[in-house]
Write a structure and sequence with these properties.
Blueprint (H helix, E strand, L loop, with lengths): L2 H9 L9 E2 L5 E2 L8 E2 H15 L6 H4 L5 H9 L10 E3 L3 H15 L5 E5 L4 H14 L5 E5 L4 H4 L4 E7 L11 H10 L3 E5 L18 E4 L14 E4 L1 H4 L38 H10 L8 H21 L7 E2 L11 E5 L3 H10 L2 E2 L1 E3 L3 E5 L7 H17 L15
Parallel strand pairs: 2-13, 5-6, 5-7, 7-8, 8-9
Antiparallel strand pairs: 1-3, 4-10, 9-10, 11-12, 12-15, 14-15
Helix pairs in contact: 1-13, 2-10, 4-10, 5-6, 11-13
The structure holds pyridoxal-5'-phosphate (PLP).
Length: 410
Amino acid sequence: MSYIAASLDAEDPLARLRDHFQLPQGVIYLDGNSLGALPRSVSAAVKDLVERQWGEDLISSWNTHDWIRLPTSVGERIAPLIGAGPGQVLCADSISVNLFKLLATGLDLNGPRRVILTVEDDFPTDTYIAQGLAGLLGEAHCEIRRVPASELTSALNEDVAVLMLTEVNYRSGERHDMQELTEAAHAVGALVLWDLAHSAGVVPLELDALDVDMAVGCGYKYFNGGPGAPAFLYVNKRHQAKARQPLSGWLGHRAPFTFDPDYVAAEGVQQYQAGTPAIISMVALNAALNVFEQVTMEQIRTKSIALTEFFMQGLMSRGLLQTLVCLTPSEAARRGSQVSVSHAQSWGLSQALIEARVIVDFRAPDILRFGFSPLYNSFTDAERALDTLASILADKRYLQDRFVDRPTVT
Ligand SMILES: *Cc1c(COP(=O)(O)O)cnc(C)c1O
């Protein structure tokens, strides 16, 4: 371990937070942008939920342990972390399902406009969901336009109903300018729907201050809610009276327990809950959020920038950029909390790193991602990852046969 990494860790005000996570010995976990590590608070909360609340208190727990309010109460805990005032965030479903609900809302609010504008290289599910909705609504009511990121501002015109973008690109780690694009969309009367999958929990956000219309985000990435943790959605207060969404399930009804034969939407963001929430997962996410009470989003961002900067400089100073191409912007303000590189043998490299206990991930066709979660990653983690990567590139281990096969999930 070098003096520099060790002294950066010694000065790091967030270093103590690592103890709140259960990380396996000897593993360097740089994949929190895909599945956050396990917060210690989660195991106890889930055990209590399963054994006492479900096991002993059974169905009465919907009231006595307030299970019924969890989508709202977890949403309200997420709200300040994304710059949202109360009454606008709901924890529910997956990002994919929430995108469907919100794209439909956006088209409805902004009709007769029918264009959903997005970029060519967005995360596939975002585009797939828009395509599904377009198929259902038909061309007369929905058209998808995809342009390169550099052409977004010129493609924004009075046809556009909704501009849908992921703030931090999952491949490159590059950030859009949320303020500039939100303002440009509003200037032509378009609504914005931001996907915060790679931002929430790691980048400070100001949804209310920027007057964002709608947003979605992930529970299992930087919020560490566990595999398949529910996602969240945001609908700005000023749209709520008119907003409608098509998944009109009973828990989005104004009075679910009157068992009314006809649907009447609940007021506010509550109408975006379709059916019964996954309580075990939501309780895990709720417990995972505890650690955010000990830190500000600004502190998280400061450390995130320092970690990615340290890693990118290390790639350069070790001469690794002679073989790898860094895809992540060097300007700190323009990147999220990951560093991505490309290499023709990225799959083999990712597998050789994982074998050496540096957990990273691969994204087709040739990208290797190093995700930094400031709550539990250290500068020493970044340095060990660099040393391991350098040694794998030097001995060309990544070309060996055992790194050829790809499993279902990469
Ligand atoms: C991770 C991620 C998702 C995940 O969507 P789910 O429906 O929750 O599985 C969606 N969009 C982006 C940009 C992501 O990075």
